[in-house]
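Listing S7. Sequence submitted for prediction.
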Amino acid sequence: MGGLLVTILVPVKEDSEEVEAIALVVIAAVGNSLEVVGSHKAKLVADVLLDEIEDRSFDLIV
């Protein structure tokens, strides 16, 4: 990998697919809870609520 650090936002909600990534990843929950359950019943705990970071800049939103 080169020296460029890419920042990625990954919004998740109940029944979302689980995600794997090699980057600085911020997991943002859609809704009002940091805890979400993916479509394969994996429990995820988001870093922040999506509404709390609407003013941040990201290189990619998945």
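Caption to Listing S7: primary sequence and predicted structure tokens for the chain studied. The two ends are 20 Å apart (CA to CA). The chain has a mean pLDDT of 83.
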